[in-house]
Design a protein that fits this description.
This protein is mainly alpha-helical. It contains 5 helices and 2 strands, in the order αββαααα.
Length: 98
Amino acid sequence: MHPSTIDRFATEDVLQIAGLPLHPLLVHAVVVPTPLTVLALLLGTFGPVPAVARHQQLGEQLLPWAIALFAVAAAQWAWFRYGDARCAAARPPVRGPR
């Protein structure tokens, strides 16, 4: 490999995500959450924080609603996918691209 080719790769960011260089993204993906995790652990050792307790309570109330929403969506999908013959007859025929 010619040295000018190596210099070109050394000066350019070869790996990018959405136009951003990959190296700073990976570094910040580790550097930012680590102190936040330590801070959360320290706050949790001194007792429950009222906002966290309230957030947990709201999260526990959300689970039955999420299960119900999934059940209704699955039932609706099954109704339209495997519904009775009247539904299939009432649907307009599917036409391909013109």
